[in-house]
Amino acid sequence: PEAQACLAAYFAELDARFPGGFDPGPPADPALYRPPQGAFLIARDNGTPLACVALTVDGPGRGEVKRLWIAPAARGRGLARRMMQAVEDQARALGLGHLRLDTNATLTEAVALYRRLGWSEIARYNANPYAHHWFAKDL
């Protein structure tokens, strides 16, 4: 339920921010976000979910970071940086040495965050119609 609540808030924000809105498509199989296929991390404050980030294994030694979201009330406190560190740690624990992610140009704070955290822009690697930037990082 917490993961669904985080994702609902995330999707609503994307729908409001993206020109033309956002359609998340059909829900992903939850098994994709459980070890050893992936992970879904939630940050809480006194039991209230404040942030989430997901990880899926998408090839030998390689994963994809998905769905980084921080509640508006929790922004500006370094939580996004800590969530990215946590997902990278989880990727290492799953034996992954290379991560990729994509993001939309409207999410300027996300683009800046990934660059600050040492992610490098790469060529398009997927067909996500909402993506404008693709990043990778070796762990």
Written account of the structure:
- With 139 residues, the protein is an alpha+beta fold.
- The chain has 3 helices and 6 strands, in the order αβββαβαββ.
- A 6-stranded mixed sheet has the order 1-2-3-4-6-5, sandwiched between helices.
- The model has no long low-confidence stretch (mean pLDDT 97).
Helical proportion? 25-40%
Q: Provide the spatial order of strands within the biggest beta sheet.
A: 1-2-3-4-6-5
Beginning-to-end CA distance, first to last residue: 31 Å
Number of helices: 3
What's the helix-strand series? HEEEHEHEE
Largest sheet: 6 strands, mixed
Low-confidence segments, given as residue ranges, are none
Overall outline = globular
β-strand number = 6
pLDDT averaged residue by residue: 97
| Strand residue percentage | 25-35%
Structural class: alpha+beta
Rg, alpha carbons: 14 Å
Summarize the entry for a quick read.
This protein is of the alpha+beta class and 139 residues long. It has helices spanning 2-17, 79-93, 108-116; strands spanning 38-45, 48-59, 62-70, 98-103, 120-121, 133-138.
Topology (elements, then pairings):
Blueprint lengths: L1 H16 L20 E8 L2 E12 L2 E9 L8 H15 L4 E6 L4 H9 L3 E2 L11 E6 L1
Parallel strand pairs: 3-4
Antiparallel strand pairs: 1-2, 2-3, 4-6, 5-6
Any descriptors?
globular, alpha+beta, 3 helices
